[in-house]
Amino acid sequence: MIRYRLLLALLTPLIWAWLWARGKNEPGYRLRWKERLGLVAVEPAAQLWIHGASMGELVAGKPLINYYLEQGKSVLVTAFTPAGSQYVIREFGDRVQHCYLPLDWPGAVKRFLRRAQPQRLIILETEIWPNLLAACHQADIDVRYASARLTDRSVRGYQRYFSAKALRDVLLTVRAIGTQTAADLERFITLGVAPDAGQVTGNIKFDLSLPAGLGDQVQQLRAEFGKRPLLLAASTHNGEEAAALRVAEALRERWPNLLLILVPRHPNRFGEVASLLVQSGIPYARRSQQETCSDDMTVYLADTMGEMLAFYAVADVAFVGGSLVPVGGHNVLEPILTETAVVVGPHLHEQPVAEELAEQGAILLADDEQALLHHCQDLFANPQLRSQQQQQASGFLAANRGALAKTIALLS
After folding, report:
1. Which residue in 147, 273, 297, 321 has its CB near the most CB atoms, within 10 A?
2. Is 91 an annotated catalytic residue?
3. Binning pLDDT at 50, 70 and 90, where does residue 200 land?
4. Which residues sit opposite 145 in a β-bridge?
5. Residue 174, CA distances (Å) to 133, 167, 282, 384, 409 in order
6. H or E element in which residue 236 lies
7. Which domains does the chain possess?
8. For residue 1, is pLDDT > 80?
9. Distance between CA atoms of 71 and 386, rounded to whole angstroms?
10. Whole-angstrom Cα distance, residue 71 to residue 92?
11. What percent of the chain has pLDDT over 90?
């Protein structure tokens, strides 16, 4: 821990510089900076404190948060990213308390705990902050993990920056951990979690349900887009938008009125992707500007937050980004929940469930851009293939549901 705290102290100026730089394109990083120091304005003694790093973790944790709210629990939800914060505010409003997680400096963490005084901390998926875990142990706060996952790459990263003893000391304080897979549990035990504290509970993302108002959103989008073939490129990263544009252009040789819907992963890249479209001379409409997607538009830039499920539901075929470039992939359960045909790239080291789905024929795996084009051509040309894929995906979802009940039992 001494080495870690010394490193944090040395990196302090760089951390603030990083937050300020991120705030240039994503202003949320420059706002509410006092919360990063533990100076939070929350009511003390929340029965449950639930933390998810960003929007992905919090979307997955929504069923769990709703369960505790329905039980009458007082809940504090923290996030690290502005996107996660915006999601909490939009989805839960004043039903929960909310602020940013403090940076993992001892003073900031202790200041936060003195103000919030939570009784139990539930961490969604993967967040190992040694000073936070140590401070919770000292304050007698029960720490548990829900739907936890840990890749081999993450294990190597933690082992690189922390001594084995330091990791073991803080992870032994974790009272219970429910992991998505047996391999995840083994990795946590390797880092120091007590074997008898762990249990494979599954991925609570499988227990997501479609929101009540989704049908109205989808109907509005279909009215705007008309009966055009719709290709969605979702959660894209740098390089994937250009690839999606080339794939869509090739598809238009057979389906001239095809519309490409682009949804960049990070809000700070919305402007960058808009500039790419301008430079390419491509006629496009931008959702944040409420521009109408007329028949002469070939691309629709969906540069808003919180509407991904609606775009998945309206699309005929969806490419899930972060997989054609070595990011590791993103959540593929949302599109199969909406019964949309799915294609992913080869980089799926952060999404082992995507590999399982590909093996069962529930989604299609493309090794490169050319394979992505071929898969999209097959799916657009063959509605029966899309239907078969959807049936496989629905069966996979049904077989894996129940993680929420197991998780609640472990956390209780």
Report:
1. 147
2. no
3. very high
4. 123, 177
5. 8, 11, 53, 48, 16
6. strand 230-236
7. 12-209+403-411 (3.40.50.11720), 214-399 (3.40.50.2000)
8. no
9. 40
10. 15
11. 80
